[in-house]
Amino acid sequence: MAVSHPPEHPRQAAQATRQAIETVFRMESPRIIAGVTRIVRDVGIAEELAQDALVAALEQWPAQGVPDNPGAWLMATARNRAVDLVRRRERYARKLAEVGRDLETAPAQAGPLEPADPDAIDDDLLRLVFIACHPVLSTEARVALTLRLLGGLSTAEIARAMLAPEPTVAQRIVRAKRTLAARAVAFEVPYGPDRDARLGSVLEVIYLIFNEGYAATAGDDLVRPALCEDALRLARVLTALMPEESEAHGLAALLELQASRTATRTGPAGEPVLLKDQSRAHWNQMLVRRGFAALARAQATAPSPAGALGPYALQAAIAACHAHAHSYEETDWQQIATLYGLLAARAPSPVVELNRAVAVAMAQGTEAGLVLVDALTAEPVLKDYHLLPSVRGDLLERLGRTDEAHAEFERAASLARNERERELLLARAADCWAGSGRGARPAESASCEGA
Amino acid sequence: MPRYLTMIRIDENNAPEGGPSPELQERMGALLEEITRAGVMLDTAGLRPTAEGTRVTWDKGELSTTDGPFTETKEVIGGYSICQAKNMAEAVEWTKRFLKTHEDYWTITAEVREIEG
């Protein structure tokens, strides 16, 4: 067995120390940025001060060794610098006042400087979540800033994940931080009606990050698991920060259950595998159990009237139905159709309606589902949504209307932006031409797959 | 983000008498909570002594079972954790922090392995 400690060569030692520093920094940076933002009230400056602490560690640790509690060391260093900065600002402001000029800006208030306790860190982290997901920012900026400040991802990693050029992402982050400073966005957890709206944004950002990884809307890969895991981790962190928030648990449950299927969603060549054809034995049972547990917490914390679940918890409940079933055929489609009905009432959208149609087709018969789908064809929102013709083609195929099904699959393929999905849809179109071909395929939709 | 199994290996023959001290249990509990709150910990537990365990062996078509304790084995698995970490370095860093909660008189080895798939 290779013993890596103590390292044999100084260069190896330096490398090991450097790696240790970078790892610790990555793990601790959200908490450091959150703690420092409390003092300087500006996430941009806080991030720079956190970086300064990293540089200090890179200078000192190789010579002095990694401290016993490296996280606390980094936090203390960053906080000290923040306090220095605030004092300098105050001195400067006093000087300005002394020479009789009007202050254009009030000096920033330094936060209390008692040693960081875990609860305070949690509060700071939660405030940071709400800042990163502030509605004053564009959705793209919220996503990028959340991955950067809370996920600890580098700009290059975010660019890779979002399939965007690195300078674009860097620009987006810089502009986002500037906007927050210019609009003097408060470092606080909102309360009252404002809180619900802001929490909605927080949950949405995490959900968007997950979805971008889970059902990559563009590009060659169907799944980008790293992005899913980042989102899942953020959701888990959020439930710890807001243990009384039903929808935070609902979102975590939804993501755990969806992530449990990751390994089975693509075939050996990266091609998509439909829900019906997924090997349930390979669904990750630990994630399934974690999903069930999170769903139970969502139900336990749901506001009255009892069991009034929010949209994320409802979607999680649907995903749980799939996870409970031993096979696609044994799935409780009636229950899923009912849950989609509740979801449609709680958060109506044509996409939810489309998913409900799929469940109804399974529960009450293909014809009943097709009636609902047909009603959606005039829906402007779904005009370019490839899953509408995909679902319609599927139902038509099951009814033996293969010519119409063929046309729908071709149309779906022309709308799909993901290369892998396009291939699958073209193959299904070809199957229709081949008549009985590979036999009828089951309905598959965004959320029977996605939820 | 990959998952890691950390197996905690202990020497049952030379384990400190009386098991973990209350202080250790408290430090460990606090750390495990921290790892959980960081969204990293998926599952963790200690294992009952090997005296209550059984080994089942398949050897050239022959099944055999051996009941514990496995006194001939210097190190046995005393507990495990499954974490979802950015990379091996992060998983190892959490493991180091876990080991550091122990008093100096402990000798334990943690083996961190990436879970495939």
UniProtKB/TrEMBL annotation, chain A:
UniProt keyword terms in alphabetical order: Sigma factor, Transcription, Transcription regulation
Domain (RNA polymerase sigma-70 region) ranges: 25-91
Domain DUF6596: 198-298
Protein name: RNA polymerase subunit sigma-24
Originating organism: Streptomyces venezuelae
GO terms for biological process, alphabetical: DNA-templated transcription initiation
Residue ranges constituting the RNA polymerase sigma factor 70 region 4 type domain according to the UniProt record: 130-180
GO molecular function: DNA binding; sigma factor activity
Family per similarity comment: Belongs to the sigma-70 factor family. ECF subfamily.
Gene3D superfamilies: 1.10.1740.10, Winged helix-like DNA-binding domain superfamily/Winged helix DNA-binding domain
TrEMBL record, chain B:
Domain of life: Bacteria
UniProt xrefs under Gene3D superfamilies: Dimeric alpha+beta barrel
Residues covered by the YCII-related domain: 4-97
Residues annotated as transmembrane: none
Family listed: Belongs to the YciI family.
Name of the protein this chain belongs to: Transcriptional regulator
Provenance organism: Streptomyces venezuelae
